[in-house]
Amino acid sequence: APQGFKEVSYDYPPSETVRTSAISAEERAKILEWSRQKSEPQPLVAAPAETPKKPIAAKRSVDKPVQMLQLSSFETLPAAQSYWAELSAKDAELALYAPIYREVSVNGKQRYRTYIADTAARLRRFCARLAEDLKSCLIRERE
Asked: Which one has a higher pLDDT value, 130 or 143?
């Protein structure tokens, strides 16, 4: 071993730390006596001081009427869904909405209209932003 280091073997532990005998009757009695003691655990950190709680005021819901903006009207549902995909890909805010598809009869023909629902003010902002993609801006009461 290098100078200053002790020769150590991990295969055979040093004899002074090895104990091969069983514990004595006195040691056993001490262990049993110690295990029967019921001690209360002591917290290492002081308990946090309780802060007085203020009553939470009930939030008043602002009931703004929800309206619907018609984005498109197509003869088939797949065409309406395809147009929604194109339109929502162009506008990130529009992509947050879930489209509402309604089947309506116009002059005896079935049409599929695509709507989004929100407050009138937000829908008007969509009308202004999407003016080139929309033929008209039809905002109506939600059914």
From this structure: 130
